[in-house]
Recover the amino acids of this structure.
């Protein structure tokens, strides 16, 4: 009796040898996939890393929470592949053939890794084991899609918030130039800059004629209006319409004449089309800042 108790006490704590660990792994595979030895042997880290790299490229996670969800999805996807492979092993081989394969497979180093893996997976030789593999795979599948839905929810909220912030920034920019006086003040600033030169004699000295709203050169007395050198020159449209059109086209180069007409409240689409053409041509020109009254740099800075 004492000898039997001592023998049982010596067996406590789990298997000690490689052969015993392999047997415990096979037994756990048959009865619920609970062995700690199963995952390190069958699910290598490079498999999870490969799946995670693909998911990173597809979903482009931003922030720690999204990265953790993608990593969780990668682990569940890898375990789903493991479950599918296990089901395939059971379906490909009959019970007798699998039993022979298991019995003939050793745990010595140098054995073919894929053959050992097949042998361990193939130990589930019954319909009951196949049902367990199905439940195992479905569990990871549910967890995968739960993480996926949470990731999509977070990304949708983030993109919605970013879109709202951009819209608010654009509205704030439009509010800066919602009156003709504000637009005129912005255009008049360039005449006081150090790089401003008279278009006729290149003189830098001049004076601002407030009543006429024109700049006059002290040298040749050439007078220059507010719209000189811009896409707004020789146009009868209000400055507020031009300023808003420039901001809209710079922010969205693919905007249509119909869309811009609705924003500006202009019924003549031909007029809006000519405005878009002027603005897009100016955006590609060397003197874009001058032609667009520096509104292109303001809009781009607010969009980033």
């Amino acid at each position: 009796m004492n000898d039997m108790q001592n023998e049982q006490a010596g067996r406590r704590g789990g298997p000690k040898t490689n052969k015993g660990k392999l047997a415990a792994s096979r037994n756990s595979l048959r009865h619920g996939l609970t062995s700690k030895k199963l995952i390190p042997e069958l699910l290598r880290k490079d498999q999870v890393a490969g799946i995670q790299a693909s998911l990173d490229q597809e979903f482009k996670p931003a922030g720690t929470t999204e990265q953790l969800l993608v990593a969780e999805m990668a682990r569940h996807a890898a375990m789903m592949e493991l479950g599918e492979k296990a089901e395939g092993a059971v379906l490909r081989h009959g019970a007798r053939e699998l039993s022979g394969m298991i019995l003939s497979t050793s745990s010595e180093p140098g054995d073919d890794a894929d053959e050992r893996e097949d042998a361990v997976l193939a130990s589930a030789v019954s319909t009951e084991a196949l049902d367990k593999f199905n439940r195992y795979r479905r569990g990871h599948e549910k967890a995968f899609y739960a993480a996926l839905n949470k990731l999509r929810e977070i990304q949708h909220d983030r993109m919605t918030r970013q879109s709202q912030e951009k819209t608010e920034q654009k509205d704030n920019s439009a509010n800066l130039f919602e009156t003709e006086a504000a637009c005129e003040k912005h255009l008049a600033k360039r005449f006081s800059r150090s790089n401003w030169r008279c278009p006729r004699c290149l003189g830098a000295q001049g004076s601002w004629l407030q009543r006429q709203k024109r700049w006059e050169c002290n040298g040749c007395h050439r007078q220059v209006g507010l719209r000189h050198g811009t896409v707004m020159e020789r146009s009868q449209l209000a400055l507020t319409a031009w300023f808003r059109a420039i901001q809209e086209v710079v922010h969205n180069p693919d905007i249509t004449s119909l869309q811009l007409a609705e924003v500006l409240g202009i019924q003549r689409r031909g007029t809006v089309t000519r405005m878009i053409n002027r603005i897009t041509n100016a955006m590609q020109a060397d003197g874009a800042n001058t032609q667009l009254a520096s509104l292109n740099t303001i809009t781009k800075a607010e969009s980033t």
Q: What stands out?
A: Residues 127-176 form the longest helix (50 residues). The first strand starts at residue 206 and ends at 209.
